[in-house]
């Protein structure tokens, strides 16, 4: 039992050393190419902006899905496109925003 735990500990130490080696290589590369740091920071800020935009987009689609679901309840249009809120969001996204790709996605879903 002691030998097995010693092997496990030495394996963990080896893995930790490999991770530190990789990290030190990355630090050397970032010090050698400071432009890379600027690009990585720009990517981080851009990713934040894009994610906020997509979150806002999903909220707007959700609000309109709820509105259409409630307003069109009992109509043939509601049974076709707005049967539930997730289905309404799907219809708004695929048929409203991505009309060229809607049939492709619906065929893949079927």
Question: How would the blueprint of this fold be written?
Answer:
Layout lengths: L1 H31 L1 H38 L4 H6 L3 H13 L4 H8 L1
Helix pairs in contact: 2-4
Tell me what you see in this structure.
- The chain is mainly α and 110 residues long.
- It is 87% helix and 0% strand.
- Helix 2 (34-71) packs across helix 4 (85-97).
- The longest helix is centred in the middle third of the chain and has 38 residues, at 34-71.
- It has helices at 2-32, 34-71, 76-81, 85-97, 102-109.
- It contains 5 helices and no strands.
Average pLDDT across residues?
A: 87
Low-confidence parts, pLDDT < 50 over ≥5 residues? none
Overall outline: elongated
CA distance, first residue to last residue:
55 Å
Q: Which descriptors would you attach to this protein?
A:
single chain, mainly alpha
Quick summary:
The chain has 110 residues and is mostly helical. The chain has five helices and no strands.
